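Pipeline run #58 for the internal structure catalog. This entry was flagged by the ingest filter as a single-chain record with no existing model, so it goes straight to prediction. Upstream metadata was stripped on purpose; only the residue string is passed forward. Reviewer on rotation: M.T. Logging verbosity set to normal.
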Amino acid sequence: MINPSTNQPAGRSRRRQAAQRHLERLLLARHPGEPLPPIRELMRETGLGRLALEHALAGLAAAGAVERRPRRGLFRTAVPLPRAALAAVDLVLCSASGRIAFADEFFGEFLAVFADALTGGGYSLRLHGLADAEPAAALEERLRRAEAAAVVLYAPASAETVRAAARACPRWAAAYPRTLLADPRVMQDNPDMVPLQLGHLFSLGHRRIGYLDQTDPQAPAAVARERREAFYRLMAGRGLRVRPEWVGYGGFTEAGIFAALTAMFRPRPPPTAVICADMQLPAVYRFLERRGLRPGADCAVVATDDLRLAARMDPPATSVTNDRAGAARLLLRLLETGPAAETGPAVAPLTLTVRASTGPVLKPGQSRTVRHKEHKEHKKVNSPH
């Protein structure tokens, strides 16, 4: 049987493709200047013949990605791997249900920016859903059947899922994992989220601060736990007491958020500021207003992710901006060239966008209306990363 696109026997074409994929996986796992295994070792690892491997190596050497050094062997160069193999990028949305849904507004905004970055780079996008309960081996099989050339995992829940994608495809990256992963091809949650939020509130004189925890007791995510621990650690570092009621999980239903806030505001004196997720802002604002408290004037509110919703709130909400465009560029670089040798874990930059939902602690006799007007302007506070 002849492969019409190459005029080669189909078996030979498959062997050369297998050799190409294996060598790309080895190159992406190495930094410039690091050696590849000898050809005999490659033959043992892959079960492929010398001819198929030499053909793939010749193509990579012609592209400048591999250097042959006499009597020393094969080495990766600093030249990126050929982009032709990245015709399509497979984006796998990992979630409890496995459905591709855009109820998560952050994912919808990220997807639009990532798709634009791929189009600008000459790539197409294929979108998949993966349920958390689906075996990692099933994902690996699915990617192999699709002949995926490049894969991005969005919010993977386990290291096994990431390893399955890496086995199936030499070019891969992951974004915003729900578990702690140390691989440099995983774009981690930026650790400056809570420091930015608390640093801003501390600068305004707030000391009694409530925290709507995102750690779901039924399915606790490592990232949410890390943020909660950062809150406790930074408050303790300031010598500030955190009452047990000031940290509570309310989920994303109004009833759950109201229950957590009711417990939070029961002790006296109550918090003067609350940290929450953007999607919780409408319920937080309604709770405060039912208590006769004006967000930003009587109680500061700081949110997370700076979704479009945050700027539409009344008053507009202070929130941490997760740089979607920067994240998209970083993921594309990880797919094309692999992690840089001199860098640590990949993180997307953060910025705190300050709006009218935060202001100084109200002083005795100070007018709430005047104070609100003084702090309605916007400003940016950058993360050190």
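catalog note: The first helix runs from residue 10 to 28.
catalog note: Confidence is low (pLDDT under 50) at residues 1-8, 369-377.
status: ready for reviewer M.T.
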